[in-house]
């Protein structure tokens, strides 16, 4: 069960009829039911669907749906009809979105879903994706509400999915469930209030991954000072909450000594801006400035839970950026773990300082094949890309192509942005090796150029997820403020290219 919805798969041929409750059927633009769906629903179903579709002006468009309450001639309490579009576009159908549409119609109710089309049954993988959409749409974050809204269902949605592929779904369903749980973990972390999820608590929660076989190492401030992560610690020095760095390792490959693939996340549990304090309007959203770190934790959970055959490392730098008397100031110069010095121009450009030290540590200590970092780094990327794409900056054409393809497949889309020596000039400092901001213009690009100085020759991608990781637009598979963006994207890329 995944937060508000329970799902069971049963063979299509075993069904003798549906239990009272909701009945969900699928049709294309011809409004035809599959032969088995018509048998399960009853003799009146085909005619009822055709007549009701006319009244509702329903054309079978993909992800459109309508509901008939107390349908005449059927034992179901409600009949829900969901469109899958024309047959020629069936190969492009997003089965996760279809699951989300279906779940959106089943608030706290029992339902039988006949996952069968007139043109044929979906594959086991497609059915598993459908279940992923059901689970993700069923997620709610309401633990701090003492009262439910009037008319809001409080029970779990119970879904029985009838499919021809039920017997062969064990492996794809396990993988889909793992990804769903990983996304939900990321959402939970982003949604938590900052007085609950401070750096120490965030780090403590990662220890739950040990039950899945993930090695978890938590570095406290004493250890970070010994290592020399002075840029990261400079961000944290204004907070009463101590910084943490967490290193998570999953060795699922055939050779445990093989170099891992690495994912690094910015984890600013609350970002006031520090001395360069933000305006008060919307500052409450800065609890989500750790969405990159949340994604890395969710990804590591998904990889371990589905027993991915890959060696993967996740590293997160967790801090709080506050304007205490001990906080770093504009004009300060700090020495990073790499030895490079950084002039602080704006204390609200803090995430790149965190990433600089963590990325350097990962590439020096673990020699990864590549590194991908995720960070809610700049508002500038939202000016460029809105909330449709994450900004992707990379030194690797191969990684860019693979992430773009994974984004198209999952709907977590990325758009490649430029790196350029010209941006380097904007972050050169008169007093140090670099400064932490290059000014108003090209803010997401100069931030990426800054981070690039800490990755050497390791193939690297920086994903600026400010527009997609928190306060994200609602979709058919997410009604959550924290979207859990990136878990599906990166899991898909790993699955397609790096497992053996």
UniProtKB/TrEMBL annotation:
It is an enzyme of class 3 (hydrolase). Mn(2+) 2 binds at residues 266, 271, 289, 350. The keyword Manganese applies. The active site is at residues 278, 352. Its cofactor is Mn(2+). Presumably involved in the processing and regular turnover of intracellular proteins. Catalyzes the removal of unsubstituted N-terminal amino acids from various peptides. This is Probable cytosol aminopeptidase. Belongs to the peptidase M17 family. It is found in: Cytoplasm. One of its GO terms (molecular function) is aminopeptidase activity. It holds the Pfam family Peptidase_M17. It comes from the Bacteria. Residues 346-353 form the Cytosol aminopeptidase domain. NCBIfam families: PRK00913.1-4, PRK00913.2-2, PRK00913.2-4. Mn(2+) 1 binds at residues 271, 348, 350. SUPFAM superfamilies: Macro domain-like, Zn-dependent exopeptidases. Its EC number is 3.4.11.1, 3.4.11.10. Binds 2 manganese ions per subunit. It catalyses: Release of an N-terminal amino acid, preferentially leucine, but not glutamic or aspartic acids; Release of an N-terminal amino acid, Xaa-|-Yaa-, in which Xaa is preferably Leu, but may be other amino acids including Pro although not Arg or Lys, and Yaa may be Pro. Amino acid amides and methyl esters are also readily hydrolyzed, but rates on arylamides are exceedingly low. InterPro entries: Leucine_aapep/pepB, Macro_dom-like, Peptidase_M17_C, Peptidase_M17_leu_NH2_pept, Peptidase_M17_N. It comes from Methylobacterium isbiliense. Keywords: Aminopeptidase, Cytoplasm, Hydrolase, Manganese, Metal-binding, Protease.
